[in-house]
Design goal:
Blueprint lengths: L2 E5 L3 E2 L5 E8 L8 E7 L3 E8 L5 E3 L7 E6 L4 E6 L8 E8 L12 E4 L3 E5 L2
Parallel strand pairs: 2-11
Antiparallel strand pairs: 1-3, 3-8, 4-5, 4-9, 5-6, 7-8, 9-10, 9-11
Amino acid sequence: EVQLVESGGELVQPGGSLRLSCAASGFSFADYAMNWIRQSPEKGLEWVSAISWDGTTYYAESMKGRFTISRDNAKSTVYLEMNSLKIEEMAKYYCAGAFPGVWPARTRFEYKYWGPGTQVTVSS
């Protein structure tokens, strides 16, 4: 059974930092590009970042310089380090595995596997 389980979401003040994790199982994690996506009522579904099987990274423009995606293939885990968080970045953050050969996968139709998400609340 394929599973993606996100963790690390919590309440943080504006300007603060968080590190999200996504533990994968049930598929060949090292062979898949992984992504972080977020969803909020205000902005809808928004692609955040992607990391290829070999560690190449790609970010949405507004996240460049503040967010860092990384992966540990030995642990089948992908991470998202978020700094200088803004109120408008409060959302549910999901990790997703892209269909093989799709790079970078930036729409919902390009993701083969999804996690249930972790809530990030940015508030003072």
